[in-house]
Structures are given as structure tokens and as C-alpha cells.
Amino acid sequence: MNPNLSQLHPYPFEKLATLKQNIVPPADKAHIALSIGEPKHATPHFIQEALLRHLHGLTLYPTTKGLPELRQTVADWTCRRFAIPRGGVDAETQVLPVNGTREALFSFVQAVIDPADRPVVIMPNPFYQIYEGAALLAGAEPYYLNTVEADGYLPDFDSVPEAIWRRCQLIFICSPGNPTGTVLSPADHLKLMALAEKYDFVIASDECYTELYDDEANPPQGLLQSAYQAGNTDFKRCAIFQSLSKRSNAPGLRSGFVAGDAEVLKQYFKYRTYHGCPMPVPTQHASIAAWNDEEHVKHNRQLYRDKFTAFIEILQDVCDVNRPPASFYIWLKTPGSDDLQGRRKFGELPGATADTEFAQKLFAEQNVTVLPGSYLSRDSGGVNPGANHVRIALVAPIEECVDAAQRIKEFLK
């Protein structure tokens, strides 16, 4: 067996299941799951219809590169969304369809990393667990870049030692962030691109939450947008990962794309021809329909705004709860000794942290499931930046989100 498998940590939801084991929540309260970032809004009918209309495509082997129409649709959408002139993204050389960003983020690392040279993969901490697993199985050392409250939950690139930059072959950024919802600025992108130029590494920008933002007039800026504005029109050392899961409420479609540096994508394409994960033809046609429509995405954003407003209004007088600029997560600091508003304190049980105790007791008393922040992060620099937080995914219908907020309020009191 691959010896690197032994380095993998249990997935956060395995740990959550263990945390909840043998607990019997109140039978008179229906369970509300706010732990998994799985959209629960309906997938638009026109996407489903496009899938059904092209089921005859199941008789064909799909190509790794995907239909030319899909690649052109993706290239055009990327240009429209990120203020790049039409034609600024080449559908032939700078776009590759993938079966969701999870698969792509993992396989991209396997293609990029040269394990012979003590490689480092830098990632935000907390992070999407695929980053770490992909790095470990590629034979790289993860470097955890803490995103803490004092820095606005944003990565401080200046804190990374030069010795790490010299060994870095790939850095993951996630903007808007999971779990924090924070957004990197164009200045952050420029700083990172300068570092990539100096130390010769690839930037993998996970942007699957870019279409879920609070201010309709201020969408998050993407890495390719910053690169083009800075004159890096070839997107050298840059790759973005996009998905229809959150944008179009189609997590089961398993559809996304990678776009950016043509030379990097050429090698990644070579890897994928052996990896064997082309997108089914019906899925490609459904994806074309989804990327060509923005009205359903605007409606989707408004649904999340309404949920954030209702949820925060209920909780704001009992805990410090903040509205993120993007994503569908609330990164809630668990009430403790430094939180004068908190009616309860957590992390006082032997062996418990504030976030694990909060999640466990909330489930036991209110039948609401949230995810402990420490399950999404690693100890680094003497701290665990996810500890004392819980991630709350406002994916359920608004009625359930309101009910959950009221239960959490009662729980804190």
C-alpha cells in the first residue's frame, strides 16, 4: 500500500460522527444539519432538462478535454465574470472541464508536485481537507498558514519563512474562504504572484464560493482577474478552480473547471488522460446551460442573504456573530471567558475544546449539528486557529435556519 496513506487524518465528518456517538438528542426536536456545505436549494429545472435532453450522449465515450462548446462557454463566462476582454481566456489551451473541484484539486497536486526535491505545499489553516490529503499523497510536506482573528481571518504571506518559499512548489488559496467567508484583495493576489515569480511555484486558487457574495455591486475578485490587470495576460503560474455545486445548487452534477496557465494545464491534461476522469456528455450539456445563465445565480445569492439576515438578527444579542462578505458559512467564535456576551462558557470539560464541547452539547440539547473548527485545522505555530470556533453552514431552508438560530440562542442562555 502507499505508505503516505498512513499520514492522512480522519475526515472531519468522521470525527464529528464519533463526537456525536451514543448521544440521544431530544425526540421532540427535528434534527437540523448545518455542518456540511451541501447546498439544499433546488437545482434549476433548465439544468435538469438539459441533462435529460442529452441522455443519448451516454452512448459516447467522453473526451478528457470535453466538448469544444463547453470549453468556449467556460472561457466566455470567465471573461465576463472577471472583467477580462473577450478572447482573453483561450478555450483550447487555458480551460479544462473537471468533475467538480474536489477531484480537480486533488489530481492537480499529483500532476504539479515533484516529490524528489523536498517539496512544500502551502495552504491556509483552517482549510478544505483535500488540500492536505493531496499534498501528503503527492509526497509533499504541508505548511499550514494560520488565518486568525487578529489578521481578519486572512493569510499573512509575510509570515512565511523564506526557507519555506524556496521549497514551495504549490500554494493553495481559497477566496472566498472556507470556513471564514473572507475575501483576498487584488493586492494579496499581486503579492502572491510576485512571490510565485521569485520562487517559481504554482498558485492554485479555489474559487468555488465566488458567486455567493453579500454585496451585489461588489463581487469578489478572482486570481485571473488580478493577473490580467497586472499584465500577466498568460496567467503564468496561476490556476483557478470553479464549480457549479454552490453557484447553481448542483453538487450532484459534479461539474467544474480549471483555467489558467496554458503550460501548466498542458501537463495537467496529460495527467488526466491517464487519470481517467472525463465528464459525461449529458453533464457537459447541462453545464453549458448553467454557465450561460446568471438569473438563477442572482436568485440564489438573495436566498442566502435572507438567511444570513434572519439568523444573525436572532443571535446578535447573545453572542458575537458576524456576516461574512461571501460564502454560506458563519464562522462563529464559541463563547468563552473572553466573551462577555456569552451566557455559557465552553472548553472547561477535561479533554474538551471550546468548539468540540459546543458542538456536542448543542446536538445533545437542541438536535442541531454544527462542525467544530478544530476539525478543519491543524496545530501550527503553537496554536490551532480553528479551535474555539464552529462552522455553521446556512444551507438548509430559511425556516430551518431560523429555527436553528432560536435553538442556539436558547442553548447559549
Description:
The chain is an alpha/beta fold. The protein has two domains: 152 residues, Aspartate Aminotransferase, domain 1; 248 residues, 3-Layer(aba) Sandwich (Aspartate Aminotransferase, domain 2). The protein contains 14 helices and twelve strands. Strands 2-8-7-6-5-3-4 form a seven-stranded mixed beta sheet, sandwiched between helices. Helix 5 links the parallel strand 3 and strand 4.
Question: What is the fold's blueprint, element by element?
Answer:
Blueprint lengths: L11 H9 L11 E2 L11 H9 L14 H14 L13 E4 L1 H13 L7 E6 L3 H9 L3 E6 L15 H6 E7 L11 H14 L2 E5 L16 H7 L8 E6 H4 L8 E5 L1 H14 L5 H11 L3 H21 L13 E5 L20 H13 L1 E2 L1 E2 L16 E5 L4 H15 L1
Parallel strand pairs: 1-10, 3-4, 3-5, 5-6, 6-7
Antiparallel strand pairs: 2-8, 7-8, 9-12, 11-12
Helix pairs in contact: 2-11, 3-11, 4-5, 4-10, 12-14
State the CATH superfamily name of the largest domain.
Type I PLP-dependent aspartate aminotransferase-like (Major domain)
Q: Can you tell me the CATH architecture of the largest domain?
A: 3-Layer(aba) Sandwich
Number of helices, counting only DSSP H or I runs of 4 residues or more? 14
Q: Trace the largest sheet across and list its strands.
A: 2-8-7-6-5-3-4
The N- to C-terminal Cα distance equals 51 Å
| Low-pLDDT runs | 337-342
If you compute it from the alpha carbons, what radius of gyration comes out, rounded to the nearest whole angstrom? 21 Å
How would the global form be characterised?
Answer: globular
Give the helix/strand class.
alpha/beta
Number of domains: 2
Tell me the helix content: 25-40%
Report the sheet-strand fraction.
5-15%
